[in-house]
Inverse folding.
């Protein structure tokens, strides 16, 4: 079970409270997590990555185990702690704009 | 008894203001979509309970929201929790997918170079006059989209963006936005749009082909003041009984056409400033027009720090200041292009919102004003629904 922490605005949009728990059958990567998230919550499509290019939106960041993975390959395997659910995969809106 | 519902989009959410036909006591609900920029909220004239909203964020992009019960409950079309449970698999989550048709191409950038078309947000939603499932969206970078399935999916009417003049279009200070969509109530094939800073355009075939309608506009701030495109049109408006007559608030100048935009003439007359953003027409008097003069394009506040709506009862040129109930000292707010609207009660009500968060209403065509609310976030848009 993978735990995902959404930023507050996306939590409201998806109508979820607290962390989201996902079963990701494939190897846990940024892409597989986002794919599963968007399947369960279609209203999130386009809010974290572009509909067409699938590139991360510029002011959205991905963190795991205290590391900023935003510039890692979306297909790079995530740390084991994420796969096991002991640490969450954190999606945040960058602090920008005042 | 009739009632009105005022739909207000702000920098930090949407608000819905309701009153009975007397328009004296108001209820305020909201914020809906708290913390998000709500560029526009507009209801269908065919089904007033159907309301569309453009919710947007620099972080998370564009969201389209839809209400089917007059603004009490909202859903992203096609991807609601209810939709997820439907057996027909309609939950595609594409209500916010605005993808330009084909290769987007380039337009002129601020420095004169060419810049790729990039979708940023929906500025204006215009529900069809005939079908609540059909709605148009004017977007930045300028293009026109439509949805025929209640906002679940969107298709570009790309004949506009692909017009030969497209590479000459350029952004205004607020971006290169398609901000006005006027549907001709007498001819379903005719649509007018306005783009900052390209100008006004018209289609007579339902959106397949378009022509610039800027003859007569004069803009000193562009190399050729009478160019075919490049004019910073802030807003256009029409009265449903006379769809060939349009009124325009341009960056500078208030203009009028009586031939569907083929030729324009200036009607700024005695206005204290002919710079401004919104313009609207009285619901029952097609020659009565409203504007809110703003001092200049570098000082976006009212002349003499007095907030005055100007009413022209002769189709322009002769304007009277409407001031009763509006601040007449130390006022430095702006009124943005989509932030004025009229109801169709008798007498006609008129409403506008300010960047200072006030929404003012007049139940008597502008003679007397009162703030309905004073302390909202900066108001981006105001629309009114007149309900039976």
């Amino acid at each position: 079970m993978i735990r995902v922490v959404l930023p507050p605005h996306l939590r409201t949009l998806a109508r979820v409270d607290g962390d989201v728990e996902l079963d990701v059958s494939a190897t846990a990567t940024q892409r597989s997590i986002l794919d599963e998230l968007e399947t369960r919550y279609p209203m999130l499509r386009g809010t974290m990555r572009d509909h067409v290019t699938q590139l991360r939106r510029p002011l959205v960041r991905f963190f795991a185990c205290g590391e900023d993975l935003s510039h890692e390959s979306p297909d790079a395997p995530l740390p084991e702690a994420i796969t096991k659910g002991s640490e969450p995969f954190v999606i945040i809106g960058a602090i920008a704009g005042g | 008894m009739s009632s009105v519902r005022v739909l207000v989009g702000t920098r930090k959410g949407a608000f819905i203001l309701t009153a009975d036909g007397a328009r004296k006591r108001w209820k305020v609900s909201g914020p809906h979509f708290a913390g998000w920029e709500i560029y526009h909220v507009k209801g269908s004239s065919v089904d007033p309970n159907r309301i569309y909203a453009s919710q947007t964020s620099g972080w998370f992009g564009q969201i389209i929201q839809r209400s089917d019960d007059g603004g009490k409950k909202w859903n992203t079309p096609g991807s609601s929790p209810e939709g997820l449970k439907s057996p027909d698999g309609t939950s595609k989550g594409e209500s916010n997918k605005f993808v330009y048709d084909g290769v987007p191409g380039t337009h002129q950038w601020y420095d004169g170079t060419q810049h790729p078309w990039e979708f940023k947000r929906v500025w204006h939603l215009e529900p069809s006059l005939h079908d609540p499932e059909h709605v148009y969206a004017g977007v930045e970078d300028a293009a026109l989209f439509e949805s025929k399935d209640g906002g679940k999916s969107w298709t570009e009417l790309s004949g506009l963006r692909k017009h030969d003049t497209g590479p000459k279009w350029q952004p205004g200070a607020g971006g290169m936005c398609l901000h006005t969509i006027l549907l001709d109530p007498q001819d379903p094939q005719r649509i007018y749009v306005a783009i900052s800073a390209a100008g006004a355009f018209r289609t007579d075939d339902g959106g397949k082909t378009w022509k610039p309608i800027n003859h007569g506009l004069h803009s000193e701030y562009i190399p050729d003041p009478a160019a075919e495109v490049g004019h910073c049109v802030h807003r256009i408006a029409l009265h449903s009984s006379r769809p060939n007559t349009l009124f325009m608030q341009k960056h500078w100048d208030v203009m009028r056409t009586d031939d569907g935009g083929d030729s324009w003439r200036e009607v700024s007359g005695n206005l204290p400033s002919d710079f401004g953003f919104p313009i609207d027409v009285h619901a029952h008097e097609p020659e009565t027009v409203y504007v809110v003069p703003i001092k200049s394009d570098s000082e976006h506040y009212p002349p003499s720090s007095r907030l005055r709506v100007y009413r022209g009862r002769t189709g322009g040129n002769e304007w009277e200041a409407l001031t009763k109930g509006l601040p007449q000292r130390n006022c430095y707010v702006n009124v943005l292009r989509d932030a004025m609207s009229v109801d169709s009660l008798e007498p006609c009500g008129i409403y506008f919102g300010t960047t200072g968060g006030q929404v003012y209403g007049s139940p008597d065509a502008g003679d007397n004003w009162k703030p309905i609310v004073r302390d909202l976030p900066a108001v981006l848009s105001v629309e009114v629904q007149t309900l039976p």
About this structure: Chain B has one helix and 29 strands. The interface with chain A takes residues 34-36, 57-63, 76, 78-81, 83-84, 91-97, 99 of chain B (CB under 8 Å). The helical segments of chain B are 81-84.
